[in-house]
Amino acid sequence: MIAPNPFTPQSGWEPKVFGGREETLKHFETILKEARELRPHHLVVLGEWGIGKTSLLKQFKKVAQKEGFPASFCAVNRFPEKSRLEEGIALLMEEILLGFPKVPKDKEFFPSGRKKLSLQPQVALVQFLQRLWECLEAELALVLLDDIQNFEPIPQVIDILRASLSHDTLLGKSRYLFILSTTPEGWDAFLDKHDPVGRFFRKREFIQNLDREESLLLVEKTLSGSGVVFDPELKERLFDVTQGHPYEVQLLASHLYEAQIEGRVTLSAWEGAFNRTLRELGEDYFEAMLRRASDREKEILEVLAEKRKPMSIADLRHAMIFEKRKRNFPVDNIKNFLYRLESKGLIRRRDDAFSLLDPMVGEFILRLSP
To answer: Which of 268, 289, 310 is a domain's end point?
Structure first.
């Protein structure tokens, strides 16, 4: 009997199988031990979209609770541009409180109501954390804040959190461990506006794509017991095009699963599943990403997509002049275009060679980009 599709490409959903990240989990266990025996060293998890930050934080929560520590997972939603600081602090406190199910949700925590503060934001947050600690009666309590880049319209929230955790009222009298997750660009934006934040949240964990072995094992374990198998060549191709990007693996594998015939998925299912995957990625992510590029920059992205390999500035000049026949392209300015694309998060540079951040973006450009 064929089981329901076990792959979970919905953003924020936990995968059926948590794959890879063994070194990261070991590092977290060390941080937990230090927090219990010495002092908490708050952690920032950095990673691009879909890389698995949410799943990792939820795994951290499971590890902490297994050790007997209460933990609150809080998803930070996007704030409108004109949001007020008081709204951000009030929402932060409410999310933290809701994440600890055994704590009474009484008016002591929100004496002025959940949407406004009668005290200055920092005073309100300090008093809230102090009262919460008394109710938790724990040796250590974790708060996991996911997607804090969504505080961008009110970045003071993170600086006030830093100042509150450093306050004499809490130091030595409580033991919180805060884990934040954000994109690298989002974290840089906080540091640009509030430099002390970086000195306080000094421990950083950068998470990358899964490697080949981790990716193939993740697919195999997810398929286990489903009644469906993927041909080996299919799994290899899946890794080649996604390069182990967790969200893309889940999405493409989900479409492949839907193409099973009598419990088997072969290479004949590839084109349809791959195009559906690109279309969804385009609608959800890639089209917005590519809108950051100017028309000239898009021409360079197209060359990088066609070549499917890192290229030097000289290689790109040659391709633009002799292969693309772009006689009116300002080749002398290619370096500036590349640096702008890098600053916009659309390409990466290694050893003076440039490539797309994600091979799937290149496939989208070649197949479906308007």
So the answer is: 289
